[in-house]
């Protein structure tokens, strides 16, 4: 983020919850506000504007908003007493889902905006400062926000997110995303390529393409995620590509083949399955069975044998029996997921599953979650241990925690630390793993750095 001259500069604090799409939106909100003189601060007491970028996916995620707003109200009042105005904004998926409720419960909020109107922020800020009172914009505008966000982005670092697709038409029975993010829409390939080139020119080496259903991408000029990945792989300087989150139903032949063809496409795929039981998958309206998922994994592994998988699971979806839960545990073992996000089913207002008759008791959900998490911890450690003695390439992202250490990312998205000079930041270096924990790998560099810096010098 650009800092610029502090003289006359206003301070902006953005808090972000939820998925990577929200992380990306927060970056873009900071960028549209920069020309108005806003630069980043971490302290609410210094902030002339605070944006809470919220998530509505589970009840707990939404509740965080109201407790955070209560704390910020105190800060806003204290600042007002010393003559400083504070613009308080709520953005993201809670804003989209319950904008009016926010206005009622927290009348001291100045702006409420949904994920699709972030490009209108400067205009909303002007309206709020002129008129006072609540400015609410939770439209799903005809025009895409991407056409109005600045084409040129400031430097993002060695790794960066790039949203290529938004929204969802799948309507899984438990999920709010189709209601908060709207219908599926893809950005044109030319816009994605331009943004990617801009990032690479400023030192980004690894790009993760984002979308709620990223493999449903069908943007103009590419037509499919596979075609987009081939186009991106042509950009000199892109060392690594990843994408998330995918739906098993959209895992087509071309995309599976791309995993075999493109060395830039990293061998770690996040592919949510949610459950291993067909009855639950049907109740969830997922549109695939456990066997469909197994076949997709087999085909992907045939294309790229070192591919590892991570996934999302919900335990305690309405109607889930002990036998269904056992089927999920069996699938987890069988596929050998390297990591997973595991959630307790949380009823969301307005979704079909929330109205389903057979809700699973809280205590049963808790027990199932503990069981699944224990299994995943075991599998994640086993996966990390399986790398010990192996050699592979690591993208160095910066200094490590201790002096003389550097940090990076393995092809499988594991955090790596090694002894080495910080000058290797942004380079892909060969390492050998000599130790592992549940969350990281300890590695030694295998090639002389001299050779590396010549090979990868910008
Ligand atoms: N688009 C992605 C993920 C969207 S949300 C997909 O289709 O897989 C991220 C994860 O949150 C989901 O994969 C699901 O596991 C979880 N999730 C969504 N709604 C939930 C709910 N009501 N209760 C618990 N977990 C939920
Ligand atoms: Fe939600 Fe399902 Fe769409 Fe994923 S595919 S965002 S879980 S409705
Ligand atoms: Fe949450 Fe919205 Fe993302 S509900 S998970 S921030 S799409």
Explain this structure to me?
The protein is α/β, with parallel strands linked by helices and 458 residues long. The chain folds into 3 domains: 128 residues, Methylthiotransferase, N-terminal domain (Rossmann fold, 3-Layer(aba) Sandwich); 241 residues, Alpha-Beta Horseshoe (pyruvate-formate lyase- activating enzyme); 67 residues, Nucleic acid-binding proteins (OB fold (Dihydrolipoamide Acetyltransferase, E2P), Beta Barrel), CATH 2.40.50.140. The chain has 13 helices and 19 strands. The strands form 5 sheets. The chain has a 6-stranded parallel β-sheet with strand order 2-1-3-4-5-6, with helices on both faces. Strands 15-16-17-19-18 form a 5-stranded mixed beta barrel. Strand 18 and strand 19 form a beta hairpin. Helix 7 packs parallel to helix 8 and helix 8 runs parallel beside helix 10. The longest helix is centred in the last third of the chain and has 25 residues. The protein is globular. The N terminus and C terminus are likely disordered. The site of FE3-S4 cluster has 14 residues, from helix 1, helix 3 and helix 5.
């Amino acid at each position: 983020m650009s800092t610029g001259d502090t003289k006359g500069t206003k301070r902006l604090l953005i808090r972000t919850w939820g998925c990577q799409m929200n992380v990306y939106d927060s970056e873009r909100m900071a960028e549209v506000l920069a020309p108005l003189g806003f630069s980043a601060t971490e302290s609410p007491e210094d902030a002339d504007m605070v944006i809470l970028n919220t998530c509505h996916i589970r009840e707990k995620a939404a509740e965080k908003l109201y407790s955070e707003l209560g704390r910020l109200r105190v800060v806003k009042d204290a600042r007002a007493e010393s003559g400083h105005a504070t613009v308080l904004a709520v953005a993201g998926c809670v804003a989209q889902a319950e904008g009016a409720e926010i206005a009622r419960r927290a009348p001291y909020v100045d702006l409420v905006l949904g994920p699709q109107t972030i490009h209108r922020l400067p205009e909303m800020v002007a309206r709020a400062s002129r008129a006072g009172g609540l400015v609410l914009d939770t439209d799903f505008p005809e025009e895409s926000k991407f056409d109005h966000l600045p084409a040129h982005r400031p430097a993002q670092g060695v790794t960066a997110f790039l949203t290529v697709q938004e929204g969802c038409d799948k309507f899984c029975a438990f999920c709010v995303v189709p209601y908060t993010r709207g219908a599926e829409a893809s950005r044109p390939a030319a816009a994605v390529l331009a943004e990617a080139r801009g990032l690479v020119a400023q030192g980004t080496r690894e790009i993760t393409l984002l979308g709620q259903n990223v493999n449903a991408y069908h943007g103009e000029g590419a037509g499919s995620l596979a075609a987009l990945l081939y186009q991106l792989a042509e950009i000199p300087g892109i060392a690594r590509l990843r994408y998330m989150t995918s739906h098993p139903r959209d895992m087509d032949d071309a995309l599976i083949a791309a995993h075999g063809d493109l060395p830039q496409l990293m061998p770690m795929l996040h592919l949510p399955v949610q459950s291993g039981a067909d009855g639950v998958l049907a109740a969830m309206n997922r549109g695939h069975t456990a066997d469909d998922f197994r076949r997709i994994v087999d085909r992907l592994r045939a294309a790229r044998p070192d591919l590892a998988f991570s996934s999302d699971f919900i335990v305690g979806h309405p109607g889930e029996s002990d036998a269904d839960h056992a089927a999920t545990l069996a699938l987890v073992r069988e596929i050998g997921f390297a990591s997973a996000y595991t959630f307790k089913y949380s009823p969301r207002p307005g979704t079909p599953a929330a109205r389903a008759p057979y809700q699973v008791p809280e205590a049963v959900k808790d027990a199932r979650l503990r069981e699944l998490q224990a299994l995943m911890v075991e599998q994640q450690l086993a996966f990390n241990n399986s790398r010990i003695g192996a050699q592979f390439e690591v993208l160095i992202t910066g200094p490590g925690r201790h002096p003389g250490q550097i940090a990076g990312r393995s092809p499988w998205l594991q955090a790596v630390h090694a002894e080495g000079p910080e000058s290797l930041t942004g380079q892909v270096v060969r390492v050998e793993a000599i130790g592992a924990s549940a969350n990281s790998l300890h590695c030694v560099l295998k090639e002389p750095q001299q050779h590396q810096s010549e090979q990868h010098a910008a």
